[in-house]
Amino acid sequence: MQRHNNAVLQQLTKLILDKASEWHLLAKYQEIFLIKKKKYEADLGIVFNSFAKELLRQEQVYFDSNPLAEVVAMAREGMKPFEVRRVLFETDRSSQVKVTDQDRDIANKVRRHFQHKFLLMQLKQKRLTEFQLAVQEVLLRNQYYLFEEEMSLFVKLYPFYLEDKQVESILDESKRIPIAGGFLLLNNVRLKYVGNVERKTKSKNELRYFWRTPEDHLVSVAVSSKCCNNQAWKMVSMLPEITITGSVSTFCLPGTDFEIAGLERGEFEIFN
Q: Which of 10, 169, 218, 259 has the fewest C-beta atoms lying within 10 Å of its C-beta?
């Protein structure tokens, strides 16, 4: 790991001029620089000191090899994302991270998965979120380095990849509902439970349950871990099959263009 020395103004100036074009916060710092340049035109040293101090808040960490393989290796060892983030930022990781060829292969699969996913979204003229844009930029870099602020999103790539693969395995054996953006009438329809997918982010922690109709259409519900009905849906999911009657909403499963029926909205009854 290499850390910049903010005590040497000459090195900082060269760093700013040589490397700023690679940094995704360039526009923000250019604006800061221009404002401060007008105010302190007589003393460029003050400008660069203030500019560099702001710039170096986003510290860089360099890696000798693919850091995503290290993330996979630590996840394989059972480390939580916050533990992985801490280890990634340490100077000597060799004693804690033992990367195998299998870890490297999985890391390459994760990279290709998200590059392909984001490319398809853009080809379909779908807007990428700020998170997705940040991930895309990291994955397109030729050098192995990360900003400190990128650590949190980077360590979540592998868990999100596993989540995507879980969803894909369920969708591959299902059919799209032809009615999207409306309501679907179900009359004593027998639903077979097919599994659940957990989603953990900074803002949410939810579990999405899936059932399949005799026509191979999907019926789903997303339940927050903090919601009062969490235990009730957990008990329902323990039944191999249920019968449902009523009207449920149809929509595209978030992150996909696959139409399913959702139990979050609608009027329905469930029987064993």
A: 10
